Amino acid sequence: MKKFIFPLLILLLAVSCKTRNVAEKPISATTPLESPAVFFNKIKEKTAFEQLKINSKITVETGAFIPPLDATIYIEKDQKVWINMIAIFLNVGRGIATPEGIKGYEKWNKTYIESDFTYLNNLLNVNFIDYNSFQDLLLGRTFIPVNSTDFQVTKNAQGFTVKSIKNLQFKTDGKVSAYMATLDYNENADLAKVALQKADAPDYLEVSYGNWENFNNIRLPKNVKIVIKGSKNSQILIENTKFDDSKMQTPYSVPENYTKTEIK
């Protein structure tokens, strides 16, 4: 088990999508949503809110035993994501993400991290996650760039499938990584699944969303599942049990005598 799991725990919300085998056809303009331009604008919309508090139950599967966790996730739009984790009534970790980077500590091994988003990208086997894409990922919004030039949209019985027609290239610190991407949406254009396959490596990331509901005139997923495949495989399931829009305090400080985990 990795010594520090905060970034992964912040990310995921569970319910896997069933494999389906249905006929697809190119998108048409028979309804406003099915107009390609309108569709791409729709799936790139940002969630309208000021703050959001989420109570969640988290299950982590890494091959090593990790007890089920209860978490409070608090998001101030475009400013911060804060999480507090409890296992068997004991606080086991806390973390915060801002546009500048991430910080977090865990009590099992008495370690902490302070980093830009390199650490999170390494855990997810990608290289393009920043604060904005991280926030979108948490909220079930489209968290990778999509446009009509690089993707093809098809209509099927479940909704819509968006597939990249060429490798998507992301450049970070002078290093370019390429991915093929497939995104599934339901009839309401709610995101159902994002699958990213690295072009020159077995690294694979899948994020699935389910059980969408309306809260204060915005659409939010109650369940998300993140599957990570590479040199090591892992997945995290989070069930969101309650949404709240009240403000809350988000204290964060590393306890004394904790060891910093270096980012490799």
From TrEMBL:
- Which InterPro entries does the UniProt entry name for this protein? DUF4292
N-terminal signal peptide = 1-22
Which keywords belong to this entry?
Answer: Signal
What is the top-level taxon of the source organism? Bacteria
Q: What is this protein called?
A: DUF4292 domain-containing protein
